[in-house]
Amino acid sequence: MSTPDPAPAPRAEDFAGGRPIAFRNATVITVDSGGVLDNADVLVVGEKIEAVGHHLDVPGDTLEIDATGGILTPGFVDTHRHMWQTALRGYGGDWALTQYFVFYYLQWGQVFRPEDVYAGNLLSALESVDTGVTTTLDWSHGLRNPDYGEAALQAFREIPGRFVLGYGDYLGAPWEWSNSQEFRAFVTKNFNAPNDMLGLQLAFDVPGSAEFPEAGAFQAARDLGLRVTTHAGVWGATTDTGIVQMYDAGFMDEKVTYVHSSTLNEQSYQKIAATGGTVSVATESEQSAGQGYPSSWAIRHYGIPASLSMDTSVWWSADFFSAMRATLSADRSRDHLEAHARNETIVANRLRAEDVVRMATMGGAKALGMEDVIGSITPGKKADLLLIKNDESPAMTPILNPYAHVVYQAGTADVHTVVVNGKVVKYDGKRIGLPLAPIADKVAASVEYVRSQLGEERWFADMHPEIQPDEEIENPYKYTSGDAHVTAASED
Ligand SMILES: [Zn+2]
C-alpha cells in the first residue's frame, strides 16, 4: 500500500474560481479561545472561515495550500492611516510634528487635488494587501469636498481590501462639513446599506477651544450612526481640555477611537476606560514626531483596549510587523526606565508578544466595531487571513514561540498568502492580478504636480528642516597616542 500523492500546489489562477481553500499543517494563531494550534488546518468556504482544526475533511474541489513551516494569523487591522499622504512616501522622514502641521495644515493643504488623494490611497491600499493588513481605516483628513471623498472611495473599489473611510477635512470646520447637504448626500449615495468591506466614520480633532464647536460634529455622527476617530492627547495640539468637553457633553462612548492619547492625565484615561472607548497606538509615529510617549504603557494600567496604527507614510513605514515590534519595545523600554529611576530592576516584561499580536488583530476589529466580523480565526467569521511562511528565510526557522516569532522574527518579506473576505489576493509571495506599475504612474504624476506647485526651492527646503546644532559637551578625558590609558584632564 502506498500513500496517495499529495494534491499539487495550486497555481495563482486557480483561485479565481472561488473554490474552497484549505491551509494545511500551519501553526495557527487563532486570537480567540483556541489559542495557538500546531499542525492545524483552516478551511475557507465562500467569504467565511468554515472550520479550524486538525486533519479537516474538506470538500472535493478544495484548493489546498501547504502551510507547513508557516504561521497563520488573522489579517492585520490598521486603525489610523492617512492613506492619501502615501503619494509623498518618505518625504517627511526627518520632520517633527511642527513641520508636518506647517506643511499640510498651514502651507500646502490647498495644493492637493482629488486625483492626489486617489493616487495616495491606491498605493497605500495596495501596500496593505501586499503586507497582510487586510483592514485599514483611512484617516482621510484631506477631503475638502465630497469629490475628494469619491476619489478616496474609487481607490478602495479597485483594490481588494477591507476599508473604513474616516471622512475628514482638516482645512474645514467639522461641525460645518459634517452637517452640510453635500456631505449628507455623499453618505446617502455611498453608504446606504451595511457593508463590512467599506465602512464610514467621522474623523476630526478636538483642540479644546472654549465654545466646543465640535459638539455639532459629534451630533452629526450620532444622527448618522457613525463612529468617531479623533487625535487625542497630542502634545501641543489636543489636550485633556478636549476630553473634558467631550465627556461633559456626553459624547464619549464605545464608538470613539482616541488616536495616540499619549499626553493625557489620569482623569482622561479613566473617562476613556469608563465610557468603553479604545486607543489607537501609532508607536513609530509617536516615537519620532513628538505626540508623546507611545501610550500602550499608560493605557494598560486603566484597562483601555488598544489597537495599532501606522499613521502616515509621508514619514514612516506602513509595516505592521514594525507596528507590533516598536510597540512592544517602547512599552518595555518605558517600564525599564521607570524602574531604574526607582533603582529597581524589571525581572519579567509585563507586555507580551501575544498582547501586541492581539492589538494588531482583535484590537483593531474592536476599535472598528467589527469584533464579530473579523480579528480572529474563528469559524463563522469573515476569512481575512495571513500566512507568514518563507521556506528560504533563516529567520523563519525554527519557530518555537509563535507570538514572539511574528513580532520579532517575521517581516513583510515573509508574507506568503493573504486572504481578504475569502478571496486569495496574494499567494506564494506574489499579488494576484494587482500590478504596481499603473499605480506607480499615477503616484509619479501626483508627485510631479505637487512638486511643481511647491517649486524646487521649497520642495527641498521643506524636506530638510533646519535644525540648531547640538551644543557639544566638553570632554574631560584625553587620549595620548602611545599611551594605553585614557586619563581625565583634571588628573594630569
Ligand atoms: Zn494621524
Automatic annotation (TrEMBL):
Protein name: Amidohydrolase family protein
Pfam families: Amidohydro_1 (PF01979)
Location of the region described as Disordered in the Swiss-Prot/TrEMBL record: 472-492
Residue span, Amidohydrolase-related domain: 71-425
Keywords: Hydrolase
InterPro entries for the chain: Amidohydro-rel (IPR006680), Metal-dep_hydrolase_composite (IPR011059), Metal_Hydrolase (IPR032466), MTA/SAH_deaminase (IPR050287)
Gene3D superfamilies: Metal-dependent hydrolases, Urease, subunit C, domain 1
